[in-house]
Design goal:
Layout (H helix, E strand, L loop, with lengths): L1 E6 L3 E6 L9 H16 L5 E6 L22 H10 L4 E5 L2 E3 L1 H8 L2 E5 L3 E3 L13 H9 L1 H10 L3 E2 H7 L4 E3 L3 H12 L20 H16 L4 H14 L2 H16 L2 H15 L21 E5 L3 H12 L3 E5 L3 H22 L8 E4 L10 E4 L5 H14 L5 E4 L6 H5 L8 E6 L8 E6 L5 H13 L3 E6 L6 H18 L3 H11 L5 H8 L1 H10 L11 E2 L2 E2 L3 H7 L26 H14 L8 H21 L6 H11 L9 H8 L1 H14 L10 H8 L8 H6 L6
Parallel strand pairs: 2-3, 3-4, 4-6, 5-7, 6-9, 10-11, 10-13, 11-12, 13-14, 14-15, 16-17
Antiparallel strand pairs: 1-2, 7-8, 15-16, 18-19
The structure holds 3-keto-decanoyl-COA and 1,4-dihydronicotinamide adenine dinucleotide.
Length: 715
């Protein structure tokens, strides 16, 4: 909705009213068309100001409408009518002017912004382009290179940057609506010709072809298969090379293709899922809206290795006072230097005071005594962690939350080492912990809902996407990764190379294939885990262990000291230890051939489709098991874990959303096919939840929970 009132005698003030972000729903568009018509025809109104209620100008088109048939007045003619008005129209921007919201503002003749407002055209992040004239107006106003940057990345800019770039006319730190009204009064009677952006020529760069070719190449490379960034470049090119009307036509054509694409659906699903996962629930019925988090101002981190350093930085940047405890003097010194450097660099980059003073360091565990929350990040060794939790239980105050960053160990077992099992949760960060957006908050059967609420709230404070999950080996992310990695190894045994497997996965959209990824994280990490699980038999080549198919290839590499990037050799060859560029390794290829010969395996040609299906469907299948066991509350939780923690391409929506797009019957049929070929691989055995979903008619993903909750006997 939108309301019109007369202020300061002659200014028509149009207020958008659609909480929480004044999105341009059909009702709001109808309201704008109606109030504009009344303002233009009312002789008392000599100028117009458009603003949004509750300190937000407009969050753009109403994304919830995209899935249904659009009704109400379309945006493009609505914005044209504003631009064509013969009375000056001023946008008063507070909070956000994003997507269609900024396009609406670009249709106005002037834009006044509050200093704290954020502006941008983020459509690309939703699989779309700014198709209400944004792709044609913005380059006309700020030039092609700057418009390309904003439109292809979707980044939000501050009011100060918008002023510098030239798409805001004035920035105020006072009352924006009042400033806009004064401004509107001052421009009455001035010519509006030069203020109608669509009538301006687009400043065309000298070598337009070379510019767009270069940009297109860069965008294609970073898009990893996403189509919207490419369409955004094409739309801006139309602005630079065609008259406005034809450019608009091109914008509409490109939008029509994007609008109905699976990628746009996937990205919009991600938008809502990212927000939905914060509304967590536990199988006990405890929920986000019934549990209040405890205030946390003092935190402690134990172990200043790879993870402890990043966690310390993330906590300090969130404004907590942190004590970091490390037993090894060398590590303590190196860790302190690394943490301080990271904090200083971040402060410089963001132009904020450094949080270095907020961190204390100690070699004594006693230093954590007054913390409200402790996060343990010592070696992945159960005996060590058991001992530590016993000590923490007696050192810390009774209501202190005890958290572990373990990758896969049993949270419940750790909780049982303490006198306060209800105060123990997992806070599973991803490396580098101060950068990666994902946090898995792991609750055991005895974790108190308030402990989960507190960890989730702290995750939010650190700017993380936090997902609450149940306790099991590897939790959600790492548990699903196991069959994915195993399938990749089996494919090597059957004739693939690390290059062919990685190529297929990168073609799918992962930033790195599984073998390049393993080289980066270190092959020794998984080796240690397999040793602890009793799977490693040094020097032995047997391919069945603990009653199921096993590939010893990773172990054989580790036995040769090939740990990946850090040793200069792994699945690939590196120039020097630590260097990043992976090169194919002829030694590895002969090693694989010899291995197959000794095992009596006949090498065959394996194509991308088989690589993708076997690795991804095995991972997805484990996702169904996880849903079935209520380890994750819904498919959105799994999908956000994979998008934010494991590089799953966002335009494919996450593994479970991808399965729904491929079609559940198809996923089931391919799993059955591979299971018949490899009956000794349990993770190819289709999950019973997948069966149930298919026999329930493969409902859309937002209705899976109904099937998950149904008792099995109901079928
Ligand atoms: C051929 C067809 C032609 C069609 C032409 C259409 C062309 C277009 O013009 C295309 C577009 O505009 S696409 C929309 C572009 N706008 C955006 O991407 C902004 C999205 N919103 C934000 O970034 C933040 O919510 C924001 C920064 C605004 C606020 O952040 P906060 O952290 O304060 O709040 P959130 O928790 O993010 O949001 C609060 C609730 O509002 C929901 N919401 C936000 N933006 C929305 C939007 N644009 N549409 C619908 N719902 C929206 C949000 O989902 C959340 O609700 P819950 O999910 O229930 O929590
Ligand atoms: N490295 C990774 O990518 C990830 C690791 N994790 C988990 O985080 C934990 C830590 O892993 P990393 O940081 O990689 O290990 P790391 O080996 O880099 O660091 C562990 C640190 O803990 C210190 N330490 C050992 N015992 C201690 C004690 N009793 N008191 C204080 N400090 C002690 C060690 O001296 C070392 O500096 C493990 O549980 C691991 O599974 C979780 C997510 C990702």
């Amino acid at each position: 909705m939108a309301e019109l009132s007369l202020v300061s005698g002659s200014v028509g003030l149009i207020t958008l009213q659609s909480p929480p972000v004044n999105a341009l729903s059909a009702a709001v568009r109808r309201g704008i068309v109606d109030t504009m018509q009344r303002a233009v025809s009312d002789p008392k109104v000599r100028s117009v100001v458009i603003c949004g209620q509750n300190g937000v100008f407009c969050g753009g088109a109403d994304i919830r409408e995209f899935g249904s048939t659009m009704t109400g007045p379309p945006l493009v003619p609505m914005i044209h009518a504003i631009e064509a008005a013969d009375k000056p129209v001023v946008a008063a921007i507070e909070g956000s002017a994003l997507g269609g919201g900024l396009e609406l503002a670009l249709g106005c003749h002037y834009r006044i912004s509050h200093a704290k407002a954020r502006l941008g055209l983020p459509e690309v992040t939703l699989g779309l382009l700014p198709a209400a004239g944004g792709s044609q107006r913005l380059p006309r106003l700020i030039g092609v290179p700057a418009a390309l940057d904003l439109i292809t990345t979707g980044r939000h800019v501050t009011a100060a940057e918008a002023l510098k770039l030239g798409f805001v006319d004035q920035v105020t730190d006072q009352n924006t609506v009042e400033a806009a009204v004064q401004f509107a009064l001052s421009v009455v009677g001035q010519s509006l010709e030069s203020r109608r952006i669509s009538s301006l020529p687009c400043p065309c760069p000298v070598d337009v072809d070379a510019l767009f070719e270069g940009v297109m190449q860069r965008v294609r490379q970073s898009a990893r298969g996403a189509i919207a960034p490419v369409a955004c470049v094409q739309a801006v090119r139309a602005a630079a090379t065609l008259p406005y009307a034809q450019g608009m036509q091109r914008e509409q054509e490109l939008m029509a293709t994007l609008f109905t694409s699976g990628q746009a659906r996937a990205l919009q699903y991600c938008f809502f899922s990212q927000r939905a996962v914060s509304r967590w629930s536990m199988p006990s019925g405890a929920r986000w809206d019934t549990c209040k988090p405890k205030p946390v101002t003092k935190a402690a981190v134990i172990g200043l290795g790879t993870m402890g350093r990043g966690i310390t930085v993330a906590l300090a940047q969130a404004g907590l006072s942190v004590v970091a405890v490390e037993t090894q003097p060398q590590q303590l010194k190196a860790g302190q230097r690394a943490v301080s450097d990271m904090l200083e660099r971040a402060a410089q980059r963001l132009g904020v005071p450094s949080a270095v003073q907020g961190v204390r360091y100690s070699q004594e565990l006693q230093a954590v005594a007054d913390a409200h929350l402790v996060i343990e990040a010592v070696f992945e060794d159960m005996a060590l962690k058991e001992q530590l939790f016993k000590q923490l239980s007696s050192i810390c105050k009774p209501d202190t939350l005890l958290c572990t960053n373990t990758s896969a160990l049993d949270i419940d077992h750790l909780a049982s080492q303490t006198h306060r099992p209800q105060q123990v949760v997992g806070m599973h960060f991803f490396a580098p912990a101060h950068v990666m957006k994902l946090l898995e908050v792991v609750y055991g059967p005895r974790s108190a809902p308030q402990a989960v609420a507190t960890a989730m709230a702290l995750g939010k404070r650190m700017g993380k996407v936090s997902v609450a999950v149940g306790n099991c080996r590897g939790f959600v992310g790492n548990r699903m990764l196991m069959p994915y990695v195993e399938e990749a190894l089996f494919l090597l045994e059957e004739g693939a190379t690390p290059e062919t497997v990685d190529h297929a996965l990168e073609e799918f959209g992962f930033p790195m294939g599984v073998f390049r990824m393993s080289d980066l994280s270190g092959l020794d990490v998984g080796w240690r885990v397999r040793k602890a699980a009793g799977l490693v038999e040094p020097g032995k080549m047997s391919r069945v262990r603990q009653g199921r198919r096993y590939s010893p290839l990773g172990d054989l590499l580790c036995e040769q000291g090939r740990f990946g990037q850090k040793t200069g050799q792994g699945w690939y060859l590196y120039e020097t230890p630590g260097s990043r560029e992976a090169r194919p390794d002829p030694w590895l290829h002969s090693f694989l051939e010899e291995y197959r010969a000794r095992q009596g395996l006949v090498s065959r040609r394996i194509d991308s489709q088989e690589v993708q299906e076997r690795c991804l469907y095995a991972l997805i299948n484990e996702g169904f098991n996880i849903l079935q066991e209520s380890i994750a509350a819904g498919p959105e939780d799994i999908d956000m874990i994979y998008v934010f923690g494991y590089g799953w391409p966002r335009h494919r929506g996450g593994p479970m959303f991808y399965a729904s797009q491929v079609g559940l019957p198809r996923v089931l049929q391919r799993l059955e096919h591979y299971q018949q070929l490899h009956p000794d691989v349990p993770h190819l055995q289709p999950s019973s939840l997948l069966w149930r979903l298919v026999s329930s008619g493969s409902p859309p993903i937002h209705r899976w929970r109904e099937v998950i909750r149904k008792p099995h006997s109901a079928l």
